[in-house]
Amino acid sequence: MTLIRFFTDSLRGLLRGSRAYWIWLGVLALVFCVGLWAYSLQLRHGLVVTGMSDQVSWGFYISNFAFLVGIAAAAVLLVIPAYIFHRVDVKAVVQIGEGLAVAAVICAMMFVLADLGRPERAWHLIPFIGRMNWPTSLLAWDVVVLNGYLALNLALPMYVLYCRYCGREPSLKHYFPVVVLAMFWAVSIHTVTAFLFSANSARPFWNTALLGPRFIASAFVSGPALIIVILQVIRRVTAYPVQQSVIDMLALIMTVALQISLFFIIAELFTDFYNESAHAGSIRYLFFGLDGLTGLRTWIWSAVAMNVVAVVLLSVHSTRRAPVTLNIACALAFVGIWIEKGMGLVVPGFIPTPLGEVFEYTPTAVELLVSLGIWAFGAMVFTLLAKASIAIELGHVRAAPAKQPAGKPLPGAAA
Amino acid sequence: MEQPQPDPEKPAEKGFDQYRRKFMAGLVTAGAVTGAAATGAGAARAAWGGSTLQDVLGGFFQDNYQRMSRDEIDSALARIERKAQRKFGVAIHCEDTPPLPNTVFGYALNISKCQGYRDCVDACVKENNLGRDSQVQYIRVLEMAKGSMDLEKSDHYYDPKDVPVDGKFYLPVQCMQCDDAPCVKACPVNATWQEPDGIVVIDYDWCIGCRYCMTACPYQARHFNWTEPVIPAAEINPNTNYLGNRPRPKGVVEKCHFCTQRTRKGQQPACQEACPTGARVFGNLLDPNSEIRYILANKSVFRLKEELGTEPKFWYYTDDLPAQS
Q1: Which of A76, A90, A232, A348 is least enclosed by beta carbons within 10 angstroms?
Q2: How far is Cα B113 from Cα B108, in angstroms, rounded to an integer?
């Protein structure tokens, strides 16, 4: 009974919001609808409305998918300090990270769905009812780990919030096993996604053992970058206490991860170019162009420039600690990794083709609108989850009779 | 050569499978009954893009080919024929051609003889009902500079007045029917697999269109229907089979299947029949007296990208260099 009231009260909490809250949600809903309209064109005419071809058979959708799995995995950077090291300041915001993971996983799955030629047959992926090629197919693995991660990141915060709602402390022995599982699971989702690419011996650009580590390193850049910005926004627009120490910790993790990430790129460049073989075709196309075609050159060099500026801003203590330069670094690193891991990783894998043809890819307006719609949907999901969880944490939504007066800071944050 | 053993006779239903079957059958029947009750057959047809509600539901809930019972396959074949009639106005015959016993097909291609005419490509397009607008072609002939095997320097779209061009040789590439096929491993839903006769086939009604198999293929042999394939009614080849050349819908992957509709009945594949130079040799690798076995034993043969370990069953050879003992 309390559980039902927990959900209805949370939902009711979502309906109470400022004008800015409603405008924000309205804009997101509008963008999502535009995306739906673009998707309807794709459903009607087929994937011919995208820029993809037999030569470059994955494009903008799968690029965004790979990037978003990284964002989802990065929630672990809050989960570990909160639950393993019992850092009170991090524990206060861990629900926000988990909410972000949920939104990112949902977005990632929507991108895969948008990429399917026959989305109505997606049920073929359901074990037993459909026919899942597990454990052989890496794509089947991805379906398993993403759904599992979604479930874990829904269950964990829901349990904690439910306890808060009832006015009691969550019991560590109940949720600790789930925390440990979620930790390993977070690493697994991004490893599996990297293996999805590196498994292809037909595509030498991806077929490297470094791809998994590169994915993890860059995820620990883009994820914290986004969380840092979001936490600052939450601190500004709500009464929720976000301590500076959390942001400092994330900024430091991000700095080290970006340094490692850039080192990995240098390692790739050296190995491919010192004795340049036919296998270096893709990376040559990416950075310098091939047969006079240079579609990705501007993308990747801007990504490199953004990441280099970001790593300098982050590595210098004074600029990392100053909010303005930190936020600039976050924005640069976020976009930089989005390009590097998205268009810069997925598309060149197909160029040149295994038969040596250089055929370029540019996303069409339909692809951009569908993608924008999915991102907007993700932002909407995150906003609602964060709003519900903040309301409970602040004690605005609480099982009657309230054991604590509304507005009192939660026990964790006050300590 | 490893032979997967999926069921010439469909195995007995057991356990969960039985419940899944009943559940699916129930859904289709319920849908059909509701459809029939709610509307007359004519009205239902109009509402479902020219199909009956029963066909739509039957198609939607159709099982993976490897799991279908005899009855389910028969009704799927009937649906395919009805659909072709509606779409193209042509009466096609679609059958389920079983693999031949003690047969594993292989292909050998003499690149000294190939002149780059592309007659094989044309014959394949016609035989296999390939979309004419979408210009899907299972065979890609590469024009290569003599003295090099660098694929990146090959011309895929050569168009001189006369072939062969001096200083060039021609390398036709199609699905190699790999024995350890990366595409089969990649498919998340088992919509593609290797048959007992070594041919890698696709269930076009089970493919979800994720295109991971295309990513995995080292030969760019797989093609996606980015749009609805269009074929003029007069050019439809009405002799089709389920795993082969039946008309495909948009949004699914297809590729060369060694003309299963022909070769499983003892005929040559269309590309071999069309080749004017006799460069193509197709046959049973398990038959020690076959021409292909003679070539493998007596010619200098090579396979494209053999180093990837996918064990292609497609060999190239030349007349210039007889094997020295």
Answers
A1: A232
A2: 12
C-beta of residue B312 within 8 angstroms of C-beta of residue B303: yes
Q: Does A245 touch chain B (CB under 8 A)?
A: no
Which residues in chain A have Cβ-Cβ distances shorter than 8 Å to B173?
Answer: 355
Q: Which two tokens stand for residue B314?
A: 């497609």
Closest CA to B310 of B188, B175, B212: B175
Tokens of residue A60, six digits: 């903008």
Residues near A190 by beta carbon (within 8 Å), at least 6 away in sequence: A69, A70, A73, A212, A215, A216, A219
Per-residue pLDDT of B133-180, as tens digits, reads 888 999 999 999 999 999 999 999 999 999 999 999 999 999 999 999
Is B113 exposed, middle or buried, given 0-12, 13-18 or 19+ CB atoms closer than 10 A? middle
Q: Which of B43, B60, B95 is the last residue of a domain?
A: B95
Which residue shows structure tokens 């490509």? B121
Output the six-digit token pair for B205.
Answer: 């009604």
Q: A265-304: per-residue pLDDT in tens?
A: 999 999 999 999 989 999 999 999 999 999 999 999 999 9
Give a yes or no: residue A4 inside a domain.
Answer: no
Query: How many structural domains comprise chain A?
Result: 1
Q: Is residue A32 part of a domain?
A: yes
Q: What digits encode the pLDDT tens for the residues A163-183?
A: 989 988 888 888 889 999 999
Confidence grade of residue B51 (pLDDT, cut at 50, 70, 90): confident
Q: How far is A279 from chain B (nearest CA, A)?
A: 11
Residues B252 and B189 in one domain: yes
Whether B189 and A54 lie within 8 Å, measured CB to CB: no
Alpha carbons B212 and B201: distance in angstroms, whole number: 15
Give the pLDDT band (50/70/90) at residue B11. Answer: very low
What residues make up the domain containing B72? 16-95
Inter-CA distances, A42 with A336, A346, B50, Å: 29, 21, 21
Q: Do A125 and B188 touch (CB under 8 A)?
A: yes
Task: Give the distance from residue B216's alpha carbon to the nearest chain A alpha carbon, in angstroms.
Answer: 5
Among A13, A9, A148, which residue's Cα sits nearest to residue A72?
A148
Print the domain residue range for A221: 9-398
